[in-house]
Amino acid sequence: MIISMRLHSTRQEIDQVCERIRDFGYKIHAIEGEERVVIGAVGMGDVTACLESIEAMPQVEKAVRISVPYKFVSKEYKSARTQVRVHGFEIGGDEFIVMAGPCSVESEKQIMQAAEGVARSGARMLRGGAFKPRTSPYDFQGLEREGLQLLAKARDATGLAIVTEVMSDGDVGLVAEYADVLQIGARNMQNFALLKALGRTSRPILLKRGMSSTVKELLMSAEYIIAHGNPNVILCERGIRTFETVTRNTCDIAAIAALNELTHLPVILDPSHATGKRSLVPALARAGVAIGADGLIVEVHPAPEKAVSDGAQSLDLPQFDRMMQQLRPYIELWKEARVTEAATAV
Ligand code: PEP
Ligand code: MN
User: Fold this and answer.
1) In 228-313, where does DSSP find H-type helix?
2) Is the dihedral of CA 44, 45, 48, 53 positive or negative?
3) Which residues, including other chains, have CB under 8 Å from residue 29's CB and lie 6 or more apart?
4) Which residue, judged by its Cα, is nearest atom 8 of ligand 1?
5) Ligand 2 centroid vs 132 CA: distance in angstroms?
């Protein structure tokens, strides 16, 4: 924070302001000019409360925040990429990770077919919701514990790691028993009780961007999880709500590049929820690789026409396989870029 005092403030007034800033836990670096004193405050504390309090002091002309409001997620705090370890591989390292599977776990047959199919095509993780956040209370809400058990069975059969959504803080323990990565859906990105509970688990978290959230808000939500004790956070761009209707959401592809500048955390793309249309998924997936995402999460269903949720944006297994083949040359270039990055970083 930089605090600018009014012209010709007295020593006593300056000291009072400095004392108030120190009360909030900051260190003071005062720059004393001929007529005006500017105070620099550094450290960790409640910036918003401190700014509000300082600005209310009559001797203060202006108080502004200069640093970003998040710390642990920022590149300034840690410049090297964070690699999140999952079930024998890393997200954020030198492998492009594809997670794929149905929107919802519906039955043993469906999840097994999906798991076997996506594994054959090169996916590393199986997705599938057992707890579903649905707009309508009358829509399928998920198989819950049974769905988690089916996912675990699919992991045993295929070796794929499991990513699945947890919707409430009370369910974190249950979902963490079965899942390798806990998914936080767009609708829950700012469920602060949930974010705090995620800080208390050691399972990696896949944090999806809220549909009306800024990149900064996404980073603040990640900061919550890390500040509460869990540094294993993966971010996900899944499209935001705009005036555009041709796609289900508007994919903020530039957010991935921006996040790569702002944070050391891995960032993946969900081209399925970002478009809502299966025909657009492969093209957007290629864009995700090209822009430097660390991976993709893609909806794939063995029979999309029968899916209980998000069938229109789900690829069938042959379509997924084709997409994975088309992605290959892009992923080769992606790997070269990672190697170059690693070589220039040392
Ligand atoms: C999902 O992954 O099925 C899902 C509900 O995604 P989002 O939270 O991004 O809408
Ligand atoms: Mn879905």
Assistant:
1) 253-262, 271-275, 281-291
2) negative
3) 39, 40, 41, 42
4) 185
5) 8
Atom 4 in ligand 1: residue holding the nearest Cα: 185
pTM value surpassing 0.90 = no
Q: Give the integer Cα–Cα distance in Å for 22 and 77.
A: 22
DSSP secondary structure, 165-204, as one string:
E--SGGGHHHHHHH-SEEEE-GGGTT-HHHHHHHHT--S-
Q: Kindly identify the ligand whose nearest atom is closest to the C-alpha of 276.
A: 2
* Residue from 165, 205, 249, 308 to probe ligand 1 pocket by mutation (most atoms less than 8 Å from CB): 165
Could you list the pLDDT tens digit for every one of the 346 residues in the chain? 889 999 989 999 999 999 999 999 998 876 777 778 888 888 878 888 999 999 999 999 999 887 788 889 999 888 999 999 998 999 999 999 999 999 999 999 999 999 999 999 999 999 999 999 999 999 999 999 999 999 999 999 999 999 999 999 999 999 999 999 999 999 999 999 999 999 999 999 999 999 999 999 999 999 999 999 999 999 999 999 999 999 999 999 999 999 999 999 999 999 999 999 999 999 999 999 999 999 999 999 999 999 999 999 999 999 999 999 999 999 999 999 999 998 988 6
Distance 185 CA to ligand 1 centre (A): 5
Which one-letter amino acid corresponds to residue 222? Answer: A
192 CB contacts (<8 Å, ≥6 apart)?
224
Nearest ligand to residue 239 Cα: 1
Which residues' Cβ are closer than 6 Å to ligand 1? 103, 129, 133, 185-187, 208, 238, 270, 273
Q: How many angstroms is it from 52 CA to the middle of ligand 1?
A: 37
